[in-house]
Amino acid sequence: MQATFRIQDFLNFRRFINSIDIHSKIFDLSDESDYEFVEAPQLNIYQKLTLCELIQLRELVNGTHFSIELNSLLHQLLFKDSELV
After folding, report:
1. For residues 33 and 51, what is the distance between their CA atoms, to the nearest angstrom?
2. pLDDT band at residue 51, thresholds of 50, 70 and 90?
3. For residues 50 and 56, what is the distance between their CA atoms, to the nearest angstrom?
4. DSSP letters for 30-61
5. CA atoms within 13 A on the CB side of 18
6. Are 56 and 20 within 8 A, CB to CB?
7. How much of the chain is in helix, strand and coil states, percent to nearest 5?
8. What predicted TM-score, i.e. pTM, was given to this entire model?
9. Residues 57, 2: contact at Cβ < 8 Å?
10. In 3D, which of 47, 30, 26 has the Cα closest to residue 38?
């Protein structure tokens, strides 16, 4: 799956992914808890993911968010330092 996000859509998608209670799904023995339907209608994303895929997606989304935050921080520091010179 490949998707292009605007920043606000990405933050909403991240909030949705992080709101899924994986812990309770792991200990739930019903068949319905083995999958989660993930959708982002504004991006035409409709996927049925297993718990392992959901955990991997959460790690990917949170890693991407970390990279965006780090990039913003570095950008601020570099421009702040260049103004001092």
Report:
1. 8
2. very high
3. 10
4. SGGGGEEEEEEGGGTEEEEEEHHHHHHHHHHH
5. 12
6. no
7. 70, 15, 15
8. 0.80
9. no
10. 47
